[in-house]
Amino acid sequence: MLSDKASLALLFFGREGAPLMAWPLHNYDVGKKINELINESDAWCEGRCRFVVKKWIKERKDFEDVLSKSPEIDGVVIYILTTSINYNLFYEVIQALGKPTLVLTEPYYSLAWPEIAELMREGYPLISVSSSDREDMIKGLRVLCTYIRLKQKIKTLVVTVPEEASLESLHRHEIYSGDRVYSNTYYSRLKEFLDLIFVSYEELIDAYSSVSDEEAKTTADNLLRRSYWVRENVSLEDLIKAVKIYIALKKLLSKYGAEALGVNCFTIMLKDLNLLPVTPCVAVSLLNDEGIPTACEADLSSLLIQVVFKYLAGRPAWISDPVIDFRDNSIIYAHCTAPTKMKGFTGEPEPYALDTHDESGKPVVVRTKMSLGQVVTITQISPDFSKLYLHINKIIDTPLIDLACRTKIKTLVKNSVKWLWHYNQPLHRVIAYGDWSYELLMLSKLMRLEIQYEPE
After folding, report:
1. Going from the N-terminus, what domains does the chain have, and what CATH number goes with each?
2. Which end of the chain is more exposed for a tag (fewer CB within 10 A), N or C?
3. Which of 452, 386, 392 is nearest to 422 (CA)?
4. What residues contact 128, with CB distance under 8 A and at least 6 apart?
5. For 212-223, what is each residue's pLDDT tens digit?
6. Which helix H or strand E contains 433, and what residues bound it?
7. How far apart are CA 236 and CA 287, in angstroms?
8. pLDDT tens digits, residue range 377-414?
9. How many CB atoms within 10 Å of residue 70?
10. How far apart (Å, rounded) are the C-alpha atoms in residues 381 and 421?
């Protein structure tokens, strides 16, 4: 497994002299400010990165020292502290290092907007933040570290049927063909971020057979004990089987050194409903709670977004199907694989019930009760991998109805007719607690995706 902690260079650009003959002030002490920033910089990382170089770039020899350390640098943070900097050297640093770069500055300290924007237009992996609020800059650093981790490629295990054992052949079944017709561009772009390993469902069944009931009983007991409601035909025996699938999948992840997982559950079950003793839904919920991004239906676009939220937000994300109701302009999101730790991997789990799987009637799924009033980010990547669909809303209800998938949240929009008539493929939307639009705007720039806001 690659390190989750990015190695960064922290470089400062600022004019020196007396008088300074530059903003922010004629007698501004650049060196003192740099020392203050260096002293506080480790706290910016929040455990996501480490600064292997911290240097004031005054002349070319300073940059040569940094360039010699390039192999150990994953990304660059440049802090601009005055106007009238050496722009030629500024350009050279970004161009020669060729690393993902975050440019920071504060109001009245810089006028480098044309230069920064031009570098972004030229396609350099660069984002910038100008703010008097340190938190805005830290958010930029979170985005930079997330992008670096994505570019290292997330080793991803895909459990599927033999006839769909490649990215290009995945989801050829008729239930997927409507919204999962992807292009060669999509295939190549997805592989920029996910290192895919395909294994047959038969390997999962073999791994399941090797797990004893005793190995699964404690986790199954805990699931049952902590639930607030259990459907009458869901038994402890069912839960033990569900946990055995979870343990089997963890064994496969360990065997292949994978950090993320896609299970082509629908295709496997449609091949033969009895191939698996229970659905993998509980396993998907448990793995996501544990910080292992896991996608049902082997939906790899959604899985990539789940990975993003793991590193960007420190929380799982939930794959869902939208339901549109003209009656009250509502969009209801439903699926059977919701995590419970939507507030964060180290946070308190949401309450949950134990239910049956909607489409098959088989046991067993976690039905998570999401928090009313919670702001959510709802997003997806377009099939041509050119856009990131983005919508911010609020949970107003968690409907309890047997129709459709078990976990449901209800949101309101201004015009549900517009939603239906202008809905963008694919079907699934990925949901995370919180408003992450600021961070996703920056991340989309690095990932070469255009933000497309979906209707309010």
Report:
1. 6-151 (3.40.50.450), 154-453 (3.20.14)
2. N
3. 452
4. 102, 103, 104, 105, 116, 120, 140
5. 999 999 999 999
6. strand 429-433
7. 20
8. 999 999 999 999 999 999 999 999 988 788 999 999 99
9. 14
10. 19
